[in-house]
Specification:
By secondary structure, the chain is an alpha+beta fold. Helix content is about 25%, strand content about 35%. A hairpin with a 2-residue loop joins strand 10 (about 195-200) and strand 11 (about 205-210). The two termini are about 30 Å apart.
Length: about 230
């Protein structure tokens, strides 16, 4: 007999925060202003997650936020759930930490980022953009109006993420068609898979399909995705 245990409020917050971090794909980066010391400087940036679950950003060396980071790497990345209506009811996650250059980033990690953001490849190859990683020290999670708490870095860390090779094996499985596109529409493409969800790109739209429970075995995940009709 399998006994299912209900998650407590903290566990629910951690799961929801991880899904927001994994599936938002862009956020507001706040750096320490170089031009106006003492003031935060905010800018909208896209990101993917590396295989340790850290946000990976492609930044221009000419951008204000990059110059700010060169002076002081301390920053925050704020993510907000998509949705309309009362913004106070939307989930938010603030990641506080340090952003540093990714000097030893593997080529496969770079290619993974370009799967998510193919339009950014010329920035890297032609315009001298560089990759940076956010090492989060602490998270502040707001699950809606009046529901806020600090979460330590270890609480949001991924106990296991698939390796580049394991992810590639899963991505070779054909993707099911959820969109019922018109003949001229671009079919969705799998761009990333982890033990808590699968990420698809259709045209310019990135979308995450969260799993109802974490799955770490490749065979089990494949069966699970077929049951959900995400893959064939």
């Amino acid at each position: 007999m399998v006994i299912m245990t209900a998650m407590n409020d903290t566990e629910k917050s951690i799961q929801a925060a991880r899904q927001l971090l994994a599936g938002r794909f862009c956020g507001v980066l706040a750096t320490q202003s170089l031009d106006l010391p003492g003031y935060p400087f905010g800018s909208l940036v896209p990101y993917s997650l590396d295989h340790q679950g850290r946000p990976l950003l492609l930044l221009s060396h000419l951008a204000k936020h990059t110059r700010n980071l060169e002076m002081d790497p301390r920053c925050s990345l704020t993510l907000v759930e998509q949705g309309g209506g009362d913004s106070q009811q939307l989930a938010r996650l603030c990641c506080l930490g340090r952003i540093t250059p990714s000097v030893e980033l593997h080529a496969k990690e770079i290619e993974r980022h370009f799967r998510y953001f193919p339009q950014s490849r010329p920035y890297y190859e032609q315009l001298n953009f560089h990759f940076y990683q956010l090492e989060t020290e602490r998270y502040y999670w707001v699950g809606g109006f009046g529901a806020a708490r600090w979460l330590d870095r270890g609480r949001l860390s991924y106990p296991k993420r698939f390796s580049v090779e394991e992810e590639a094996q899963l991505m070779r499985t054909p993707t099911a068609d959820h969109s019922q596109p018109q003949p001229e529409a671009t079919p969705p493409q799998v761009v990333g898979i982890d033990h808590e969800g699968i990420d698809l790109l259709q045209g310019d739209l990135l979308q995450r399909f969260p799993l109802d429970h974490p799955v770490t075995a490749i065979d089990e995940l494949t069966r699970h995705l077929k049951q959900l009709k995400i893959i064939k």
